[in-house]
Amino acid sequence: MTDLFSKFDPLIQQRENLLATGVKDPFSLVMEKVISPTVALCNGKETILLGTYNYMGMTFDPDVIAAGKKALDEFGAGTTGSRVLNGTYSPHRDCEEALKEFYGMDHAMVFSTGYQANLGIISTMAGKEDYIILDIDSHASIYDGCALGNAQIVPFRHNDVEALEKRLKRLPPEAGKLVVLEGVYSMLGDIAPLKEMVTLAKAHGAMVLVDEAHSMGFIGPKGRGVAEDQGVLDQVDFVIGTFSKSVGTVGGFCVSNHPKFEVLRLVCRPYVFTASLPPSVVATAATSIRKLMHAADKRAHLWENSRKLHAGLKALGFQLGTDSPQSAIISVIMPDLERGAGMWEALLDRGVYVNLARPPATPAGMTLLRCSLCAEHSSAQVDDIIGRFKAAGEAVGVIG
Known about the structure:
- By secondary structure, the chain is of the alpha/beta class.
- The chain folds into two domains: about 20-55 and about 295-395, Aspartate Aminotransferase, domain 1 (Alpha-Beta Complex), CATH 3.90.1150.10; about 60-290, Type I PLP-dependent aspartate aminotransferase-like (Major domain) (Aspartate Aminotransferase, domain 2, 3-Layer(aba) Sandwich).
- The chain is about 40% helix and about 15% strand.
- The protein is built from 14 helices and 14 strands.
- The chain has a seven-stranded mixed sheet with strand order 4-10-9-8-7-5-6, with helices on both faces. A four-stranded mixed sheet has the order 1-2-3-12. It has a three-stranded antiparallel sheet with strand order 11-14-13.
- Strand 7, helix 7 and strand 8 form a beta-alpha-beta unit.
- It is globular and about 60 Å long.
């Protein structure tokens, strides 16, 4: 009998080899207590959080917490039903209204996760005779949305406008086409040239979906993301996002101005056949989203943090994923997985938590230490982080 686990043997061996060096398992860390958006108790030690995607620091906002407690008291712990049956409560509708207010769009659908939002919209919109044209570095949820549907997949080189144009020119002019892009790519923290790409897609008769998971709340004059910042939000057909980053809770969404959008509530399987989010969760999300509409000072401070950390790490000699800070993600490229894990552990021992990202999730087989800044990090904390990176880097031999 064939063991279906056999295909994972190389990964199991790689993990065993890594742990045999004595390094802590970087993928099984337990946070014993979260003290604030920027500090948690890990291994009994207060640790600066630099890898949680809590970009706007909304997880402990008093108004957000109060809204969740109120909804929990009024509606209970969950809905035990799908949105199309018994799973739509007034907080779900209110959350969708908050999204429409935030983006200035006519329609909004809330999903149980951001992953399901991509899975649902992409697999539903593009059918057997259609084409999905996507950046090769797209998130796993985008690829899985493609796999769930029947469309023909056409990848193009990461952030390459010319490569996108070549792909579009080769497709039948009359065919249905969906160009899928991300505002910020989560591994390196680099932004897409949406202005050029969206304009190009429209010129070739394609609809456009932009995943703004890592830019919502932070990038753009009103925090609507890279599409807003580059002046093409009105040309984007679908904006996908998540509540698990800047909004500070869990869930996903799609907003759109398309007049037929509401039919998706009846045909989108990951929406129809999934239990809806607990009312307390969507109540916290709605409150957070409305506060993010008036968070210009937070956005400005987060940009200051990003510029400071990028400049500090670059000055120390670390190789970074981007030449300049483009988002709240600062990725540090490691020579290999072993030294990446060693650096991750050295930072944790010095009270800083970052994400260790490894192939195949990373582009070009890179091992990354992915830093995610928060608007609640103080300037002094960022200075402290840079100092601890220096000590850890010297201890591991990553910098001289």
